[in-house]
């Protein structure tokens, strides 16, 4: 029976604070909770990315008086058909690589969460017409919730992937399973670095060490193509992202679950990587390297050292690389597909909108290629 299910709404940062104890209780019940589920991750996000007022809400699935699931949403403009429209979304479009998820440990709650949220959002006067989830990973909590929902109520589009390394084996065995070209590249990089001096790998874990290592990362990232004379995509040019990552490092550092790895060549930093641990998973959120030293592939060497660290730590079974990059593939990671999910909030026109969007996403690109080919033939 689901007669006791209902959605209760909490608004803004104050609403998030009110949910803190329930959030931790749900996390304790979850199997395989990751960085994307942590209270600290969501707190840092909603504190720094400008989700103010009632544009940021936490939809709580209640079973009577008991909290069974939490789904954060915020209202923003996103493209659907020809132009942008007002939508509800999980805040993944602002995090630039960090993807959030819903908090829902109960299989029974997963079956009713999406229908209950749709019913609730359709009834409130928000002006939003769609619920859109970006970068939904296969096997994630949100994915399981969607698989339990009516397939005619949403449309999905594959938009990316995440690479994950299984570290429940020795590093030597993992190296044997690497591609031969990858191992050759690592050997060549080590030989070249040896001609330039001594490489040293440092793992910073205490709050004091992390504060220094984070500033090293920020400075190193800004020294290359993301810096002043490049595309200015480094954290130091994006105050909201800089504050977001600084809050994450401080919060997880206090819990003993943040580590920043640095690689030095003759006392000069050439690569840095920010990682967070949740349960048996270590997640690599950002990595940067000195482009002046690109010939020795410092980013590749540092990542290989972190992979070895994961394989030698019995408490870590997975190394989540967060993104899908061609230079990850030498380690032969598991590639987890990611999707954007579009759900119309209009009950009557919903199935028609899903069908039309399906046509647009699946056939418009093919039609465009055909028209370009015909123009070239003229």
Could you characterize what this model shows?
By secondary structure, the chain is an alpha+beta fold. The chain folds into 2 domains: 5-160 and 337-377, Gcn5-related N-acetyltransferase (GNAT) (Aminopeptidase), CATH 3.40.630; 168-316, Aminopeptidase, CATH 3.40.630. The protein contains 11 helices and 12 strands. A hairpin with a 2-residue loop joins β2 (56-63) and β3 (66-79). α3 (39-48) packs antiparallel against α9 and α4 (107-123) packs across α5 (141-147).
Compact summary:
With 378 residues, the chain is α+β, with helices and mostly antiparallel strands. The chain folds into two domains: 5-160 and 337-377, Gcn5-related N-acetyltransferase (GNAT) (Aminopeptidase, 3-Layer(aba) Sandwich), CATH 3.40.630.30; 168-316, 3-Layer(aba) Sandwich (Aminopeptidase), CATH 3.40.630.30. The protein is built from eleven helices and twelve strands.
Give a quick account of the main beta sheet: strands, pairing sense, barrel closure: 12 strands, mixed
CATH topology of the largest domain: Aminopeptidase
Number of strands: 12
Count of alpha and pi helical runs: 11
Look at the structure and give the mean pLDDT.
89
Question: So what's the CATH class of the largest domain?
Answer: Alpha Beta
Strand order, sheet with most strands = 1-2-3-4-5-12-6-11-10-9-8-7
- Gross morphology: globular
CATH superfamily of the largest domain: Gcn5-related N-acetyltransferase (GNAT)
């Amino acid at each position: 029976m689901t007669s006791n299910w209902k959605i209760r709404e909490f608004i803004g940062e104050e609403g998030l604070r009110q949910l803190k104890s329930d959030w931790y209780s749900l996390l304790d019940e979850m199997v395989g909770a990751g960085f994307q589920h942590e209270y600290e991750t969501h707190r840092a996000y909603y504190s720094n990315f400008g989700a103010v007022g009632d544009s940021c809400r936490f939809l709580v699935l209640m079973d009577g008086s008991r909290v069974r699931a939490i789904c954060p949403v915020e209202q923003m403009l996103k493209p659907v058909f020809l132009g942008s429209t007002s939508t509800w979304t999980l805040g993944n479009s602002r995090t630039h690589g960090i993807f959030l998820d819903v908090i829902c440990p109960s299989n029974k709650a997963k079956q009713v969460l999406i229908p209950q949220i749709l019913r609730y959002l359709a009834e409130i006067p928000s002006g939003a017409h769609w619920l859109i989830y970006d970068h939904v990973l296969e096997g994630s909590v949100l994915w399981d919730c969607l698989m339990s929902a009516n397939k005619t109520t949403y449309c999905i589009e594959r938009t990316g992937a995440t690479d994950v390394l299984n570290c429940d084996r020795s590093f030597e065995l993992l190296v044997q399973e690497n591609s031969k070209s990858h191992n050759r590249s690592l050997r060549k990089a080590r030989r070249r670095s040896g001609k330039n001096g001594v490489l040293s790998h440092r793992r910073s874990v205490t709050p004091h060490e992390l504060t220094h290592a984070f500033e090293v990362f920020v400075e190193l990232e800004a020294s290359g193509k993301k810096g002043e004379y490049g595309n200015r995509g480094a954290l130091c040019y994006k105050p909201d992202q800089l504050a977001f990552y600084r809050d994450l490092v401080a919060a997880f550092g206090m819990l003993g679950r943040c580590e920043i790895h640095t690689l030095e060549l003759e006392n000069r930093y050439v690569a840095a990587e920010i990682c967070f641990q949740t349960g048996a998973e270590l997640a690599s959120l950002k990595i940067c390297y000195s482009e002046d030293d690109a010939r020795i592939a410092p980013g590749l060497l540092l990542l290989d050292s972190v992979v070895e660290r994961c394989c030698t730590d019995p408490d870590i079974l997975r190394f989540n690389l967060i993104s899908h990059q061609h230079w990850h593939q030498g380690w032969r990671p598991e590639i987890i597909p990611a999707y954007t999910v579009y759900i119309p909030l209009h009950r009557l026109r919903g199935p028609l909108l899903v069908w039309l969007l399906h046509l647009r996403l699946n056939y418009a690109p093919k039609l465009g290629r055909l028209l370009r080919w015909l123009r070239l033939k003229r």
